[in-house]
Here is the input.
Amino acid sequence: MSFPNLVEQLGRECFSCVRGRLLSNQPLAPVTWLRVGGPAQLLFQPADEADLAAFMKVLPNDIPVLPVGLGSNLLIRDDGIEGVVIRLTGKGFGQLEPVGETRLRVGAAVPDKRLAQAALQAKLSGFSFYAAIPGAVGGALRMNAGAHGTETCERVVELTAIDRSGQVLRLSRADMNYAYRHSEQPADLIFTSAVFQGVPGKAEVIAEEMDVVVAHRERAQPIREKTGGSTFKNPPDNSAWKVIDAAGCRGLTVGGAQMSEMHCNFMINTGEASALDLEMLGETVRAKVVENSGIRLEWEIKRLGVFRPGETIEPFLGRA
Ligand SMILES: Cc1cc2nc3c(=O)[nH]c(=O)nc-3n(C[C@H](O)[C@H](O)[C@H](O)COP(=O)(O)OP(=O)(O)OC[C@H]3O[C@@H](n4cnc5c(N)ncnc54)[C@H](O)[C@@H]3O)c2cc1C
Here is the structure.
């Protein structure tokens, strides 16, 4: 299906001040790791922070807004996303500069891996875990991305964001109320950059840490598949993969969706999966895990957008 053209609906003159790209009914599947889902009613790629603020000021308040990064944690539903999807690109949001001796100011579109490399060059330790995370900084700030015992909230000092009315906000780490893979700012707040704190270290030690992180990822994760990383958060004092395995869900399939044989908390699109296949698979796993161990897994992957008419995951929610 395609959505009504929002630019035509609101009138082209509404956006005359905007310098970035506005694309109606733009497919989102190609820009997510799982490669499924429908279009964005309107995709906006702002030229820079001032352009983004100007856009938010003229956009009527009742139009929903959703920022996305590199789509490594997203399951976009088959009929796509109503309203405006905002995707920051390296052109306007790719800055990476030192602040004093131990801090880095980083644009939200900078890939996490580049941040890890920049920290190595600046001989700052504490960033090696980013070498394992295939997202960008904006997604890491939202998700409190972490690996190998370190999380984003341990490194971030200050964030800059643009709110729904186009105001530029400065936030502290405390304002984010970070928890495991969780932060508490509104879903339509757009992070544009952040300052990160490192610890002076030796380049060869940092490089070695990064090698360990990358080698572990190669060995343990299906990173060449269409996947969204960990499907579920780890339950308290347990591992999601262990309870999924114990419930017999390693390799489980629904249509073209499968729980990876290699890492059974990663779901993969084996080729022709729909978003519905993937979501039904996830809900089937949740039901089997509850039945087997009483544990209710919480989705880590963000499921966003609208179902096709008549589609529902209800029967799967009730199963087992
Ligand atoms: C192979 C693989 C391995 C992974 N390994 C890990 C891992 O070890 N640790 C880990 O934590 N995660 C991991 N992930 C998940 C994912 O990479 C992280 O959650 C990452 O931080 C998401 O960043 P992104 O840019 O892809 O964001 P997206 O997936 O595009 O979006 C994720 C969320 O962030 C929000 N968001 C994105 N950009 C912005 C912005 N500028 N402002 C405000 N909100 C924004 C979106 O609205 C959405 O809610 C893995 C994923 C894959 C595919």
Q: What stands out?
A: The chain is about 25% helix and 25% strand. Residues 275-293 form the longest helix (19 residues). The mean pLDDT is 96.
